[in-house]
Amino acid sequence: MSRLRIALFGIAVLAAGPAEAARCGGDFQGFVAAISQEAAASGISQGVINAALGGVTQDPAVLAFDRRQRGTFNKTFEQYVATRVGPGRIKQGLAMLQRHGSLLSRIERQFGVPPEILVAIWGLESDFGKGDTGKLPVVRTLATMAHDCRRTELFQGELLAALQIVQRGDLPLRDMIGAYAGEIGQTQFLPSSYIKYGVDFDGNGHVDLRHSVPDVLASTANLLKTAGWRAGGSYQEGSPNFEAMREWNRALVYRKTIAYFADRLAAGGN
Fold it and tell me: Do 204 and 251 fall within a single domain?
């Protein structure tokens, strides 16, 4: 599930940057040189900059995909949920609730987000980590989008955040693989969200949203808690928790689908 929808709504950029952004358009390598200077000014090491941006090229397929977007959620709720929450996915979700029951309980105690919500999001975003989480080099994708002048400030910030993920040692550069807007991992975080909400819940010293299920689920819960999730409250439409899910996805039909899926899981699939 592409997280470009969040990019379009201007998610807050956490990577520090200089006062003046690199200019979009024009010569791509000149743009890369300027953004490299910004990365250095924000504290990214020259080694990371050289490894990540040295020789980077534009990806025409990323721009073509971006220009084809016509609104992911233009179906009715009934149409959309029928394509996303079928018997097979509900069965898998129930199995995930059982398999990760102890982990999910610990996360709920710390962040207040119930297991069924986290498993619903996990299932919708990546089929519980088994689905397509993207195959594109994140740095190349974000450099391409940042050079494009339509949302350059947003994607320049995301590019700097991606470099920060590498700088922190959370993911090696070879593992910075994601989707068409630079989304990373099993619940598809943009790099700025990775930096802002990522939690090292398995205690290994790194936030790994590609491979570590504890980190994935705890980080998702942390995002919701930070957005105002109230432990024990309703998550149905009109509730504060439903509103908190706007930080996850602002599309009404998608948040209703999360709530519907969570209800089915809480009811044992019934």
Answer: yes
CATH number of the domain within which 38 lies:
1.10.8.350
Cβ atoms of 146 and 155 closer than 8 Å: yes
- β partners of residue 184: 178, 189
Q: What is the DSSP string of 214-227?
A: HHHHHHHHHHHHHT
- pLDDT tens readout for residues 217-226: 999 999 999 9
What single-letter amino acid sits at 25?
Answer: G
User: Tokens for 151?
Assistant: 């949302």
pLDDT at site 157: 97
Cα(244)–Cα(148) distance, integer angstroms: 31
Number of domains in the chain: 2
Look at residue 20 in the predicted model and tell me its pLDDT.
54
CATH number of the structural domain spanning residue 201: 1.10.530.10
Question: Token match 């975080």: residue?
Answer: 189
- Kindly list the catalytic residues: 125
Q: Which amino acid is at 219?
A: S
Tens digit of pLDDT for each residue in 94-115?
A: 999 999 999 999 999 999 999 9
Contacting residues for 22 by C-beta, under 8 A, at least 6 apart: 31, 34, 35, 37, 38, 146, 156
